[in-house]
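Predict structure. Chain length: 368.
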Amino acid sequence: MKFSFSSEQDEFRSNLRRFLADRSPTKEVRRLMETDAGWEREGWQAMNAELGLTAVRIPEEYGGHGFGFGELCIVLEEMGRALACAPFFATTVLAAGAILQAGTDEQKAALLPGIAAGDVIATLASAEDNGRWEADATTLTADASGKLTGHKSFVIDGHTADLIVVLARGPAGLTFYTVTGDAAGLSRRLLKTMDPTRKMARLTFDGVQGTVLGTPGAAGPAYDRVMTEAAVCLTNEMVGGAERLREDALAYAMMRMQFGKPIASFQSMKHKHADMLLDVEMAKSAAYYAAAALDDGDADIVAMASLAKACASDAYSQTATHAVQIHGGIGFTWDNDTHLWYKRAKSSDVLFGDAFWHRENMMKHWAA
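Prediction complete.
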């Protein structure tokens, strides 16, 4: 499979990068990450009114633009580059993905237009206190009437979501349920995490009434597909952040003078920048290929997604470490912005499985 971006996609990326540079400078990122919500509804709605980003992946019959993962991953890469504080990933990748994979036509028609319009903030609650993302780790239960009991943890934007898609063990087996954010018996607590730019919450369900999404007992394959899509989308977000770190580190090395020369002219520094460029470009190739494979319906997409996620995890973490070192002592300070991407690199590494887990998953699928 050969892959390259079209001229329309390149233009879309350019417009989006300019928009995010204006709307999400690091000063704004720092302001929003200090709030409990982590984002502001006014800014979120303005973003969707101007660019319609939440509608990119949603089919036209449900109020969306009907584009594929190629376009969605461009959005995520640019958001990762700008470190945009918005509930985009939770709403558009996780919740919308679960609804598209598991919901009936009637449920899609009822739930997706609000997400496409940017009026509804949604998320997916799947992992629990054990930190595992596999479907078989689910212990939260639902009775015959759909009342949910248990906990969900590490729920992205779970403390502010209007709609929550919950993976639970019902009478028929693994089932998706939808719950409103203000449902009786639901309590939501913001978690203190390493990365303050991506908010996560722990949700407690005490007899919360849920509505079955799709077919009871059939959520397992749909959830696995959503996690595959999420890994690919996160990979593209990660390469955007890694590329930003690499570019900023190079710009600093070109400006920083020692012994009357920019430090970028030193041989050891050239080696470090060459290593960073190689790592990031390899991760970008894997990320783009995986996104194209999703659109093409490739049979090996699970293995490709894990390959891309493992590659991006290594590249982002290593690039972040190099970037801090290149900035020297100032790179460790709160006033320097490098640590913002460093924390995102570390948190993204373990989100949906770290590089070790994905390498094992890749080999498992290729050996099958």
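Summary: Residues 219-255 form the longest helix (37 residues).
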